[in-house]
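debug: dumping io for the single-chain case to check the tokenizer round-trip. Nothing else runs in this session.
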Amino acid sequence: MDFVSIRIITGDIARLVGFYERATGVRARWAGEDFAELVTASATLAIGSTRTVPLFAPGAAGPADNRSVIVEFLVEDVDGVCQNLAGFVEEFVTEPTTMPWGNRSLLLRDPDGNLVNFFTPVTPAAVAKFAR
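debug: decoded output
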């Protein structure tokens, strides 16, 4: 089995895709007006409009309703990402902070309120864990 992607359902797909394109520097691949993907070397962030939900099961997912998942991006320089997003991101949850497990993390909320973590491994153990 391979983990392929995580999908966010949104009521404003253009706004959310634009946010993630700016925040990550990754250009979205659109597969129609209701679905886009930001593809990286290790994972894909899929974004679908609420119009896609009934294709699975009506009412199975709702936009801007997540309080349990953190979308995470490994970056080379989390402090640089923070500087780049200043004035663009509406809600920073925490400024770059070194966590006990060795990652320097920046937590923020996307326009739908989803929690997003940009992180850079900084301790030898964390760096080794994410070495490519």
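debug: round-trip ok. Strands lie at 5-10, 29-30, 35-39, 44-49, 70-74, 91-98, 103-109, 115-121.
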